[in-house]
From TrEMBL:
Its cofactor is Zn(2+). This is 5-methyltetrahydropteroyltriglutamate--homocysteine S-methyltransferase. Binds 2 Zn(2+) ions per subunit. Belongs to the vitamin-B12 independent methionine synthase family. The active site is at 701 (proton donor). It comes from Solanum stoloniferum.
Amino acid sequence: MASHVVGYPRMGPKRELKFALESFWDGKSSAEDLKKVSADLRSSIWKQMFDAGIKYIPSNTFSYYDQVLDTTAMLGAVPSRYNWTGGEIEFGTYFSMARGNASVPAMEMTKWFDTNYHFIVPELGPDVNFSYASHKAVNEYKEAKAQGVDTVPVLVGPVSYLLLSKPAKGVEKSFPLLSLLDKILPIYKEVIAELKAAGASWIQLDEPTLVLDLESHKLEAFTKAYADLESSLSGLNVLVETYFADVPAGAFKTLTALKGVTAFGFDLVRGTQTLELIKSSFPSGKYLFAGVVDGRNIWANDLAASLALLQSLEGVVGKDKLVASTSCSLLHTAVDLINETKLDDEIKSWLAFAAQKVVEVNALAKALSGAKDEAFFSANAAAQASRKSSPRVTNEAVQKASAALQGSDHRRATNVSARLDAQQKKLNLPILPTTTIGSFPQTVELRRVRREYKAKKISEEEYVKAITEEIKKVVDLQEELDIDVLVHGEPERNDMVEYFGEQLSGFAFTANGWVQSYGSRCVKPPIIYGDVSRPKPMTVFWSSKAQEMTKRPMKGMLTGPVTILNWSFVRNDQPRFETCYQIALAIKDEVEDLEKAGITVIQIDEAALREGLPLRKAEHAFYLNWAVHSFRITNVGIEDTTQIHTHMCYSNFNDIIHSIIDMDADVITIENSRSDEKLLSVFREGVKYGAGIGPGVYDIHSPRIPSTEEIADRVNKMLAVLDTNILWVNPDCGLKTRKYIEVKPALQNMVSAAKTIRTQLASAK
């Protein structure tokens, strides 16, 4: 039996790619320097999998930004605003699409299915002149082959690419993107021909949209596309890979009947119902790539259970046609457990990062072939038993408090309109109040201070002094800019989830468990291994200190329970909603302590609420019910005069707008500018929103500085569909990834735009 890995983390065990990208963007290193770091990373990844015994090793899963943008480059689908003149796409055009530049904005960025990874959304229309403009897939296959590794080149499948795209600006929203299939398939044929000529014997086409609820015409597009590609694919073994959920019965039937396809890959961790379809109707003579090792979490595989599952599948497809695989790309997990020197031995024994998952996949393949590593399986069984019986996992008081939540929907006693009136009397804010989302730039000096404090190289007194000075700088800047509701800038926090997890029980932390979110942005998700509670206040000290520096309202800044859940590696031994309720109770304690300390505006970020929405519509209602309930639990007991904000970003919110309203926050700030103001369309269509709302007026993920006029134009578009008395003016998201030379003029222009429109509104009365 053979083994396969869908994809692998590309940042490197010590975030080598992140630092190389940022050095290049800052002009401190050359394109050749960046390419050298990247080539070294690819080489080490291929060697690692080769040495571990993986037969089907992926290539072209490395990316400088994301795999969908790579496909856009391959197809030459560059929007005209980037002034690309043809030829092979170079870094300048590629990174302008991803990040924008001084003169034009970036393309929209959104979440990759229900993960915290992001992709750049292709902008397509009838006038796009597709051309083969990036030979990356072929070049990387040849690169690996030159090193003695015969890989499986991976491409985003043509139908999924189109289904993940959007009509370009100026193109009718109803434009049928699938009508472009005939224009992109010739380029896929060119790529496939070059791969065959280079010696490839397998190719992997990722078609993850097959797990969605697709209408019949979309399923028909798969049939059409692969029938068209059949002759080009002749002579190759072709794997069509799916992941993240069950494949619905109709899609399964379409998928397994595709022309020219040799093998089918399924996520059997999150897609357990697909098993019944495999057992009843998997086509004979085809390969089954069985995704039994979880690519989205860090728990060690239950090898005995996975082996039993594989043995049952062996009877369906035959030993020579069964391949042990990961459930999806390992991009979504941390790189290597060997780099974790501070995790205690018990918890460490429960875990497997990407490098360990590669070993697990191969161990399962060998066991099924009769070469079972008894010692490896025995150690795994002992770790599984240890985790189930460990007293550190269970806290009876927490479980009792969580169980007591049943039977109440936890709503504040007064409606939002009355609360806003009470809050305005206390806060006395102008119309179109200005604010920011929370974080301010994380300077090199600030990171040094936190690092040295953690390493005990500076005293607590020195640390508090340095952080206090940073907060004062941020407060003074906001007052100088005349922002209405201030933030303290979060200088004490490296990450919005990690910071809270470090102060909650039931969490463990890694030193190097970094996971890519987008581009060079990496996060280090905490590990929730047990019941969650809050031993002591987490933010009251810094929020109170910041409020003492100003007479203006200072937001208390918290991360909400659903976002902490969705941005952590979550325990898989109880339902996710039970863990979420436990986190909600911990955040509720913090909200109440902030209110007691005199903080009158408290922001509870739920940036990841939409991200966790299940991929299948039938599962939406259950998730939204417990997710929204968890948010309401956090602030149910506070005074009407305390204003609760929440923040959401980088997802499509239009389909859950009623659940957002049901959260019952007083003010929501929400990403809007980078997604072509899609959010405003729901209000144009008649959805009534009575709480405060701040659709973002500029994109903070781009270094570009918007003009006062541009921001004013966005605000006026908002005023066309939203009442003046509920509209807030704010950026799309937090400012931690930007530099002060970008932040100050952008915020200056934002405040100036708000003041200009206030004057216009006053004179129009």
